[in-house]
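thread: overnight batch results

M.L. [08:02]
morning all. the overnight job finished for the chain we discussed friday. pasting input first so we're all looking at the same thing
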Amino acid sequence: MSELYPLRLTPSPKERIWGATDLRPYFGEFSQPIGEIWYSFEENPVTNGPLAGRTLASLMTEFGSRLMGTAHQPQTLVRQTAGAHLAGSSSPTGPYFPILAKMLFAEKTLSVQVHPDDDYALRHERGPGKTELWYVTDADKGSAVALGLTEGMSPDELADAARSGEIEQYLNWIPVQKGDALFIPPGTLHTLGAGVTICEIQQNSDLTYRFFDFGRFDASGKGRELHVEQGAQVVRMDAPKSKLTLTPVVDPVFDRCLLASCPYFAAETLQWDAPAEFSPDARRFDLLVFLEGQGRIGAETYRPGDCFLIPATAEPFKLQPDCLSTALQAFVPTS
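M.L. [08:03]
and the structure it wrote out:
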């Protein structure tokens, strides 16, 4: 019998000025606006079973490929924020977990932003770049996201438009609804509109170049830091400007749909309304973010907002739903 089992990851709230205070049905109500809930980062602890209290980093160190899978390639990377290395601060060193799973709750529109690729990020920020996927779990009527621009611009023109605010009239807004998915590679200028909740799967990076912030001020009355010069250098005009077409996957157990796959991660939706057996893959770990329904995962319960890390060598387990359930599954492709 394996000593590893489905590991419940602590939902870690991050306050953001664009966030919401009511995070139901995934979480409760908060006194401050919460924009993001982080799950799979190295400092985050497990909350269930014999390994409760242990951080993801400590489990990676102890269990290695038994947790991460035989195909896992350890990387000497450190999650960074923009300019952190210049200030002499960075995330703790240690094993690097490749995927960061989040939920985002946008009560207000986010800043217009862009993320660098690995090459630029490693040279200028000493950390990995950021590729991400958004899966819309809830959206108010009329909600939208912006991907790219409606016309091409040079880096200098982009920077001028950001400083003047003219960039706002060129944003490529796309209506979204529950069940939509968007793939956002590095260089994609983007923003999440008000009234949208998403599950995000991304490289484990916090590198965001805030390009334009709609003239917004933080809690202290100051404009938030912008990264116009850096952002203009990494924006790509050939970046995606549309939603993904979801691909059904033949599966005898789950109603499964592939959202996207890239070298950093693959993401699928799973749906089931009867007991189903989940068999871990010895080559890789899996992340399961539960979005709808409730029931049991092995010896544990699940509900919307729960996230479990499935170790590569965990024993097969049952998913026993009380009602129709939906989860987003994420993993690093093995081929």
